[in-house]
Amino acid sequence: MKFSPPAEKNPDKSRLRNLLSIFRYAFLVSVLSLSCLETPRLAAARLPQDEVDALNLITKKMGANGWNFNADSCGEYLPRVQRTDPDRNITCDCRFENNTCHITSLYFKRFNLAGELPPELIQLRYLKNIDLSYNYLSGSIPSQWASLQLEMMILSSNKLDGNLPKELAELKNLIDFRINDNNFNGSIPDFVQNWKQIKRLEMVASGLEGPIPPSISVLETLTDLRISDLNGPTQGFPMLITMTGMIRLILRNCNISGELPAYLWTMKSLEVLDVSFNKLVGKIPDTISADRLRFVFLTGNLLSGDVPDSILRNGINVDLSYNNFAFQGPEQPVCQENLNLNLNLFRSSSMGNNSRRILPCKRTFSCPKYSNCLHVNAGGKDVIIKENKTTLSYEGDGQEEGGAAKYFLNEQSFWGFSSSGDFMDDYDYQNIRYTETRWISWRFDRWLRIPAYLTPVGGSDSDLKLCSSGKKKGTAYVVAGAVAAACLIATILGILWWRGNLPGKWCRKKGNAYSDLC
């Protein structure tokens, strides 16, 4: 006699249970497999205890409270949402015996660290790269660091002072050295000639004084040289003829006199030439073979002669403002409106007693009345705001795309601007930048939509005379509200999500913030 098993009352439910069982089994196998794979990886990425102790001591001396590192800190990376977010990254070399790693790179940027540069850095014997920029670190560079085999040292935008220790001459492997925006003392040291492998050297507003040592001429591997704001004696242009691979050359406000050397205009790799705010004389040559030039800043010198056609090439940005060039009338080639370039000629010729020479490419210019104030809606259209009995007219400049070398004149409203400079290292040759559009509160019950401009540091619009129709304007007090509306919306959405009133499930993790609205 055969017995048949009882029929399943709900076959669909049975199949669902089977599928869930298979899923649970597959998930368990996957977790075990990943665990087996993860164990040797972690075992192969261990720091020796002496480097762990040194790392904790180093960060504590720099003012990083609450940072705790362990033997598994290799490869630790703090992700950034925006470019201006803090950057913490530890890189190791794990190709040593006995499953040992050693720290080779430290990146601690934009953490507002207010401590000092720690001499204990030398305990990380395999360290090659350090980037501690955009903090509040003070004190001097420890001379002990010279015993390391450093290839990169970036200390820009801190509060460092003192002389550069002479022991740094021993950093023979140095490729990248940047100390911009600090308070160092003394002259640029002659020992930089020892850095024979250097490619990038930056001392922009570092606090150091001139002159630039003549021995810099031996650094033939340089591709990026940036020095600015040097006090000290007047000097001639440094000899850079052997630096045939130069890409960016910035010697701004370095108290350099004399003529620009002819070889500068023949450098095949040169893209950026900024020698503004010096005491340079002479002319721009009629022939320029530096075909890759994209930015030429000659602002604030004593250059003369005509503006040659050789500098008027497609896509280039040229600032010739505040010089002694021949006046460029509307019939000159530089005044053609169809040129595919950014050219700033504001006050580019010697004025003498003729104020008309302030504005090139104009036959006549008359100013009804000079004004002592101007309201500009940067990046937007003309806006009229009424507040009580006061009416304010904000002139819009949104129709102008900006640029690294820009001269703009609004002949109807009799105002304009001169802008010079570039946001370096963003590979934006047109240099058109905006901040994101914001709703700004100018009264507690009213909001104004403002797409604001971001302009280069080198802006030079303060010397332009502003004209008005002569009507007296009142004064209004504008209250700038931040992003309270966005924060309120984010809070409401968070409450709805928490209560399950929004579709789907968002991942949340204790201690982590995912919202960038507020």
Write the layout of secondary structure elements.
Elements: H1 11-43, H2 49-61, E1 77-78, E2 87-93, E3 102-109, E4 129-131, E5 138-139, E6 152-154, E7 159-162, E8 176-178, E9 183-184, E10 200-204, E11 224-228, E12 248-252, E13 257-259, E14 272-274, E15 279-281, E16 295-297, E17 304-305, E18 317-319, E19 324-325, E20 342-344, E21 376-377, E22 383-387, E23 390-396, E24 405-410, E25 415-420, E26 438-443, E27 446-450, H3 484-498
Parallel strand pairs: 3-4, 4-6, 5-7, 6-8, 7-9, 8-10, 10-11, 11-12, 12-14, 13-15, 14-16, 16-18, 17-19, 18-20, 21-23
Antiparallel strand pairs: 1-2, 2-3, 22-23, 24-25, 26-27
Global Rg = 31 Å
Strand order of the main beta sheet, please?
1-2-3-4-6-8-10-11-12-14-16-18-20
The CATH architecture of the domain at 251-363 is: Alpha-Beta Horseshoe
The CATH C-level class name of the domain at 251-363: Alpha Beta
Number of separate strands: 27
Compute the average pLDDT. Answer: 77
Shape, per Cα inertia axes: globular
- Content-based structural category: alpha/beta
Encode the helix/strand succession as letters.
Answer: HHEEEEEEEEEEEEEEEEEEEEEEEEEEEH
Percent of residues in beta strands: 15-25%
- The helix tally amounts to 3
Helix content: 10-25%
How would a crystallographer describe the biggest sheet? 13 strands, mixed
Report the CATH superfamily of the domain at 251-363.
Answer: Ribonuclease Inhibitor
CATH fold annotation of the domain at 251-363: Leucine-rich repeat, LRR (right-handed beta-alpha superhelix)
Q: Point out poorly predicted stretches.
A: 1-6, 25-43, 434-452, 457-518
State the end-to-end distance.
77 Å
Subcellular location: Membrane
Organism: Salix purpurea
Pfam families: LRR_1
Transmembrane segments: 476-498
